[in-house]
């Protein structure tokens, strides 16, 4: 089913991207034990469609182009789970992936924004690529499927994801419902794994959303259900953030001038 879905996704994206100057590179279409991928290469940047067999997900990525080929430092644009129960479910999930990826590459002013990010990325080649909040929320669709439509609606309404607000208004209530109910072990493990992975690989906004917005808003009993599945790094981050609950960071106090410095200044003024 994944091969059929991959072919459909690539075919539909090809119809959109080739009109924008991103032809499909036939030599890039590849399948191996890890999954499948296909590249659409333009003058300044390239898009890549990836299917990861182990994680059962489709990912839309982009990177800059050098000498007519992707330079290889791919950055994630969108990621969606593909784990259908039957052919009908596979068709539904494929259509959803196509709609999401198509929206990503045809969004108003999206091409210019991505090119700007690629240009910025070129200036920081030595730095590790970090995933953003949109990628984080797309990963959470694996646990909370209803987020898919809410993400689309958020972007249609506001033109972007309001990172902290979306977490508080859309994600947090679903977490409370899950953790206060009879959550299955697999659901808890999946949620904790996503948090751990994105805490390790996400940017500053993702770190803040996971710790200070989401985990800090949970009760101790709710956190106890997730903590056993956290990585050591995520456990430390969670514990540190929760120690800061209710505390306000005081602004830095202005440094006092030394008495000698004040006298010297007055003497200078008298001259």
From TrEMBL:
Domain DUF7674: 137-236
Domain of life: Bacteria
A Pfam family hit: DUF7674
Classification lineage: Bacteria, Bacillati, Bacillota, Clostridia, Eubacteriales
Name used for this protein in its record: DUF7674 domain-containing protein
Annotated InterPro entries: DUF7674
UniProt-annotated stretches for the region Disordered: 247-271
């Amino acid at each position: 089913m994944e091969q059929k879905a991959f072919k459909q996704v690539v075919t539909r994206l090809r119809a959109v991207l080739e009109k924008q100057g991103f032809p499909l590179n036939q030599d890039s279409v590849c399948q191996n034990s890890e999954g499948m991928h296909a590249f659409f290469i333009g003058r300044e940047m390239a898009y890549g469609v990836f299917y990861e067999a182990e994680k059962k997900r489709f990912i839309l990525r982009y990177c800059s182009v050098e000498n007519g080929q992707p330079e290889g430092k791919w950055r994630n644009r969108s990621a969606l789970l593909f784990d259908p129960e039957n052919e009908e479910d596979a068709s539904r999930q494929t259509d959803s992936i196509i709609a999401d990826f198509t929206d990503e590459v045809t969004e108003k002013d999206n091409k210019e924004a991505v090119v700007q990010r690629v240009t910025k990325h070129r200036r920081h080649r030595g730095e590790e690529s970090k995933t953003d909040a949109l990628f984080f929320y797309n990963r959470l669709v694996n646990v909370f499927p209803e987020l898919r439509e809410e993400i689309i609606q958020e972007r249609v309404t506001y033109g972007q994801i309001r990172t902290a607000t979306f977490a508080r208004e859309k994600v947090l209530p679903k977490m409370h419902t899950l953790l206060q109910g009879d959550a299955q072990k697999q659901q808890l493990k999946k949620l904790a794994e996503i948090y751990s992975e994105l805490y390790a690989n996400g940017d500053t906004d993702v770190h803040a959303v996971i710790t200070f917005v989401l985990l800090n808003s949970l009760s101790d009993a709710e956190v106890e259900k997730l903590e056993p599945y956290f990585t050591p790094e995520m456990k430390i981050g969670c514990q540190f953030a929760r120690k800061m609950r209710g505390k306000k960071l005081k602004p830095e106090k202005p440094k006092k001038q030394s008495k000698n410095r004040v006298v010297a200044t007055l003497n200078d003024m008298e001259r």
